[in-house]
Design brief:
With 236 residues, the protein is of the alpha+beta class. It folds into two domains: 113 residues, no CATH class; 105 residues, Homeodomain-like (Arc Repressor Mutant, subunit A, Orthogonal Bundle), CATH 1.10.10. Helix content is 53%, strand content 9%. The protein has twelve helices and seven strands.
């Protein structure tokens, strides 16, 4: 995986992929590539087998392996998520990083490579205010508040928000927030040492028992079992 901090291009045998600062590219084992031009980049290598285990568990788009070109994300100016993730993993490298650090890095970068909010691109015609509000709800401080915060971010009436969510995303504000909370909780369980109770409240659940029931329904395992399975999956 390479995160670019300068201008140049990636030569992948039969075509050139122009690169600019902030671009993220997932270079797969079968990709033959070389860097063309003057640029600086982070090059973070990891075992393909471990990556595929993580990708399967995290629900990474299987098309990433099949597409002709490597997954590539061109970030908006000012979006430094990938750079911050790389800086963090390099800092941990000085302290003898563990497999846990690599999992954390993947969890930070995969949403960058994927579409905002971890979903497919918004349907054609989706209002900008709705796309922005839904993307902002990824942050824990917003998830803790829930639907009320989504309404505040959208700057429209509750009825208009509900109609728009149904029209463009085929869901309700409550269902959308609930899915985001459970997805965020799964990421935190797999990539942090925060307690289950802390994660539940960080994601907006006021009852630990309710969180456990919802999580088990969504993921087929209790929060603790999900964490245990995730950790065992990455034993070297």
């Amino acid at each position: 995986m390479a995160i670019v901090s300068g201008d140049g291009a990636q030569d992948l045998g039969h075509w050139l992929q122009p690169l600019r600062p902030g671009d993220v590219v997932l270079v797969r084992p079968r990709d033959q590539h070389a860097i063309v031009g003057s640029l600086q980049f982070y090059n973070i290598a990891f075992p393909a087998s471990s990556w595929r285990t993580f990708a399967d568990m995290a629900g990474v788009d299987p098309q990433w392996e099949a597409e002709e070109r490597p997954p590539h994300r061109r970030l908006d100016p000012g979006d430094d998520r990938a750079v911050r993730a790389c800086a963090a993993v390099l800092e941990r490298f000085q302290l003898a990083p563990t497999r846990f650090d690599l999992i954390r890095f993947w969890a930070e970068v995969v949403p960058v490579l994927a579409d905002p909010a971890g979903a497919a691109s918004p349907p054609s015609g989706t209002p900008d205010w709705l796309v922005a509000a839904c993307a902002a709800m990824e942050h824990e401080e917003h998830l803790r508040v829930g639907v009320r915060r989504l309404q505040q971010l959208a700057h429209v009436s509750p009825a208009h928000l509900a109609r728009s969510m149904r029209r463009y995303y085929q869901t309700t504000p409550s269902e959308f927030v609930a899915e985001l909370r459970l997805r965020r909780a799964a990421t935190l369980l797999a990539t942090t040492t925060r307690s289950v109770t802390e994660i539940a409240y960080a994601c907006g659940f006021t009852s630990l028992s309710y969180f456990s029931r919802c999580f088990a329904t969504a993921h087929g395992a209790s929060p603790r079992q999900f964490r245990d399975d995730a950790q065992r999956a990455f034993v070297p």
